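One record is set out below.
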Amino acid sequence: MGNGSLQGLRVAILVTDGFEQVELEKPRAALDDAGADTVVVSPKDKTVLGMNHLDKGDEFIVDQQMEHAECDDFDAVLLPGGVVHADTLRMNEDARRFVQACDANDKPIAVICHGPWLLSPPDSSRVAI
C-alpha cells in the first residue's frame, strides 16, 4: 500500500499502439499506489494495443485523446517505450506540442526505453538521452 505521496497529482501517460506493455503497467501501478491520478492519453480514440517484446499484448482504454490534452491539466508526463510506438508519437504534432509545453513549464517527464524519441525533432535521426 502506498503512502499517498503523490495524492492529487495528475499524470498523463502518452501511448499509441505498439508501446511496451510492462512500461505502462508497472509505472502506472506505482503511480496509482502513491496516490496519483493516471490518465492514458493517445492519438487513438478508444483503445491502444500493448506489446510484450515482439508479441501482441493487451488492449488498454484511452482516457483522453491527444488532440484535447492540455499541459495545464497535468502535473507530470510518463512516456513508455516501444520502437513503433515511440516513432509514431514523435511524428504526431499534438504529442510534440503537449510534451514541449510540459517541458517549457518545468513539469516532470519520465521516459522509458525508446520514450525519449518524442523529445527529438521528427526530422532528426538523433535521439535525446
In short: The beta strands are 10-14, 19-20, 37-42, 47-52, 55-61, 64-65, 76-79, 109-111. Helices lie at 22-33, 83-90, 93-104. The chain has a mean pLDDT of 89.
